[in-house]
Amino acid sequence: xxxxxxxxxxxxxxxxxxxxxxxxxxxxxxxxxxxxxxxxxxxxxxxxxxxxxxxxxxxxxxxxxxxxxxxxxxxxxxxxxxxxxxxxxxxxxxxxxxxxxxxxxxxxxxxxxxxxxxxxxxxxxxxxxxxxxxxxxxxxxxxxxxxxxxxxxxxxxxxxxxxxxxxxxxxxxxxxxxxxxxxxxxxxxxxxxxxxxxxxxxxxxxxxxxxxxxxxxxxxxxxxxxxxxxxxxxxxxxxxxxxxxxxxxxxxxxxxxxxxxxxxxxxxxxxxxxxxxxxxxxxxxxxxxxxxxxxxxxxxxxxxxxxxxxxxxxxxxxxxxxxxxxxxxxxxxxxxxxxxxxxxxxxxxxxxxxxxxxxxxxxxxxxxxxxxxxxxxxxxxxxxxxxxxxxxxxxxxxxxxxxxxxxxxxxxxxxxxxxxxxxxxxxxxxxxxxxxxxxxxx
Length: 442
Description:
There is one protein chain. By secondary structure, the protein is mostly helical. Among the domains are: about 20-185, no CATH class; about 330-425, 3-Layer(aba) Sandwich (Rossmann fold). About 60% of the residues lie in helices and about 5% in strands. The chain contains 14 helices and 4 strands. A 4-stranded parallel β-sheet has the order 2-1-3-4, with helices on both faces. The N and C termini lie far apart (about 130 Å).
């Protein structure tokens, strides 16, 4: 350490008297004061005690707070508790001139704290890039301590760059001092404003206290009113109890009152059920009339078909005892609903299986596809099916190669002749009963 008790930032600038501009003057002064600078430093970063001594004052003052510096110095030396901040600062600056325990401790603290900034500055490989990084950090103002340390210890930091950074940090400290003076003026104004607000707060508190007293008086009045209402309610409860006692006496004087009330409720329920039954009887009467109308229509239809001369009551017997369908499946599409059983009997008497579809009158047309797939012969009674069913049967049989016979009549005898012809010709049917029409109706 130096033999002087205090160390302040400074140093002499050795400059030639014929320097033509400020940049040359700064360059020459930096060259005269940087005793550690060489022609090439390599890639190693400098230690705290390796940078010029006049830079130690800004490093210690900017990078360490007063309380933090006091704590770090207490680890390596003993000093009175009432030591001033200036004494601690100058002592730390003097200790950084050469390697010492305190200089080593401060160096490690800076390296640990500024790791992110050091890594970012390490990407700068030239003096110009390093100076650009420093000025960007100084313009932002958020990480000036870390940027100062990373720049001055960077391998690419030459004497001229050191001096430029030193000038920047010197002016930044002046600006901070100016801001502090401005903040002090602002603080004074805030104190005056705070005093005014305190006075207004005292007045508001007095007003609130007056309101609280008024609210207490109102609350006491409401409590008195509540007590009066409770007394009044107790009197009404006593009156109700007295009336209930009198009601009980009246009920005891009429022992059959409950029975009468029960009978009245039952009579009301019975009347409601009777009304519901009458409504249901009316609905049943309407349904009966509708069914009778349908029965009359069915009788007229039966009489009409009987008058046509077609015998549906007695299906024809097999003309040839040897005619046999051998388990073949015959699908009947259409026909009269009353003759379906006769159709079935004709087919089963000849050893076949019978399927029926009404042609879309009541059954869905989608079901006819499955029946067509299972049938070996299709008998389509074209006079009693819809147009859609007619064309659907025709297209399906044509596409699948199923043999289809179209007959005009819906009688049992006509169906029997077709089945007999199928037994005789092994489903190779051609005759007068075959009929195809693109316009059919029931």
